[in-house]
Amino acid sequence: MSTHRFSERDPAPIVVLIAAMLAWLVSAVALTESTTWPIAAVVAVTAGFGLLVGAVSRAIASGAIRRGAGVAGRAAVLIAIGLVVGELAAVVVFSGSIDRLLGEQAAHTAESTPAASQAAADLDRSRTARDGLDGAVEQAVQRRQEALVVARCEFNPRPDCPQIAITGVPGAGPETRTANDFLADAQRTLDAALAERDRQAAVLDSQIADGERAVAQARQEAVADADRGLGARWVAMNDHTLADSGAFVMRLLVDGFFVLLSLLPLILKLWRGETSQDRVVAADVERDRAELHADTAIAVKRAEVRAAIDTMWAEQQLASARMAVEAQLEIDREEQRRRVIEATEPAVTARSERIPQTAIEDVYLPIAAEAEAASLLPAELAPAVVDDASEDDGRSVERSGRPLIPAIPDVTRAAARWIRPLVPPILANAIDTTTKPLRGMRQIFEETEEIHISMRRTHRVSSHIEEAEEAGQATEPVSPTTSRGDDRAELAGSSTRELRGRRGPRELPPGR
């Protein structure tokens, strides 16, 4: 309980809040001095920076902390954040010196701009012309003054007069007149220089004033266009602190303060140790991780089951398709074989014509006569001798001569021989079945049950079916027998004949 209360009184969030507020304030002041953005934009951008610093500090200082590399990594991130905020604070602290250095650099740079150079050249030419006028006037005044001294000393020599320029003879003479002529010429030169200066002085003075204003404007523009952004201010601050040891120490103190402020939540976290809140958070994280692993395992298992089911269905469809293809191939092969047989058999030509009734009666008369003769013939023959041993065996019959009672197949074969040439081939094939009343067909049914576990059972059924067509009431249907071919029907008795076969229900052969 005491640990939980201590966690509720954790000062780390307060320290994080203070660090975030200071980061916001320092960045706002630095951005205001280095840009011309509106206050609202500056506040919005710097508020985001402060929130970022607070969020990173809170995230690093919260949660479980592992000793060693984990603490070193978190401390490195907090130190980097503290250095960034400290450098911004140093830019704010040395703002006056930074402005002075930036102004000097801008003024020095302004002299090399094209506009300032052109304005300075024009100003220099105007000043040179104005100085030339003043120099001409001064030179004319100096020559007049020298000519005046020579003229006076030539007329009245004195000790202080230049002895080289005069003759030393007082009074008027040729030398005196020459000196007066030089004096008059110097006066005329002075008057001309003064007149020239008075004529051009106003224009030159105006040009000089315009040139000075142009140079000043060009320098102001160059200074205004100089880089005063945050990077330039930091470079100027760096130059100032490296040039001045006191400023460098102050910079280190500012950086150290903000680094310590950034590391303080982590230090407090390490000091107070693990709390109940940290254990609850760790338990929640572990629970979420376990649930995520379970969901992942379930999803993977379901995917594997779906893949197995899809594979089984695909294999079943493939097997069904193969069986269908094989069956279709077998059907096509059988149809082709039948077509080949039909094509290779000789064609039977038949002539179709209408037969009158009298001709039909004439055709059936020989058939009836032969049938009647066949019915009377057995009475004239001797009775058949039956072997008792064969009767007991029930599998074979011996005939001596023709049977006593005429067989229906004999009658039908005789009739078919007369009718076959008169009908089409398809009807002739149908009539031909009367000559072969007994046909055998063998069918084999194979059932396979395959169990994928460990057992395989095969059940094969083989049946032999014999069919006989009815012709009146003289013949009885022959019962189907099993696949053993030695079981046959036989004729029993001396006077009357009947078909006797194996008695009892139909049986299947034993399975393998």
TrEMBL record:
It comes from the Bacteria. The chain crosses the membrane at residues 12-31, 37-60, 72-94. Residues 497-506 have a biased composition (Basic and acidic residues). The keyword Transport does not apply. Residues 456-512 are annotated as: Disordered. This is Membrane protein. The keyword Nucleotidyltransferase does not apply. The lineage of its organism: Bacteria, Bacillati, Actinomycetota, Actinomycetes, Mycobacteriales. InterPro entries: DUF4407 (IPR025519). It comes from Mycolicibacterium gadium. Keywords: Membrane, Transmembrane, Transmembrane helix.
